[in-house]
User: Which sequence fits this backbone?
């Protein structure tokens, strides 16, 4: 039995959750998110709670029960408070700047990297070495942050590159004479 799926998702004030044709829609101050349901789970909305139940007792239904509940909870939190990832850029001459809907990165290459910011995502640079990615969809925020980090990941000898602020880079000792 799912330990995650059996608890209902509590809907905070300012967020509305509705069910339309096997699609859960969450609306809040930060936007609107949708989730298409599979045939293995049922969703019931009552009062300020969303309950998820499996349709059968097969393995697939039990697996998707907890997953669906977690995805609905992620949507509710996303449209009410949102998600963010902070990244730090380390290295001589490495910097970032936002111009319109583009993030411009100088990461030690012979050219600057221009990253087009997707819809629903907000990128800010308080300092040239700090980048913050914000949005209501947790998956998209993580994907954008991973793509930015992928341009120049942190290396273990000097620590140069783009890393998450809460990430710990294991440092290696260099060559010895």
Assistant:
């Amino acid at each position: 039995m799912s330990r995650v799926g059996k608890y209902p998702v509590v809907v905070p004030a300012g967020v509305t959750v509705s069910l339309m044709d096997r699609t859960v829609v969450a609306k809040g101050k930060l936007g609107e998110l949708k989730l298409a349901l599979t045939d293995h789970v049922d969703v019931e909305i009552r009062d300020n709670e969303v309950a998820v139940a499996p349709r059968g007792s097969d393995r697939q239904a039990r697996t998707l029960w907890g997953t669906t509940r977690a995805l609905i909870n992620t949507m509710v939190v996303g449209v009410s408070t949102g998600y963010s990832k902070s990244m730090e850029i380390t290295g001589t001459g490495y910097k970032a700047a936002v111009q319109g809907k583009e993030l411009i990165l100088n990461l030690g290459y012979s050219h600057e990297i221009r990253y087009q910011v997707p819809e629903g995502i907000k990128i800010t640079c308080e300092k040239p070495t700090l980048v913050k990615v914000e949005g209501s969809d947790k998956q998209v925020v993580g994907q954008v942050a991973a793509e930015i980090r992928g341009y120049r990941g942190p290396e273990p000898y000097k620590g140069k590159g783009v890393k998450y602020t809460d990430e710990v880079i294991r440092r290696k000792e260099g060559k010895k004479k």
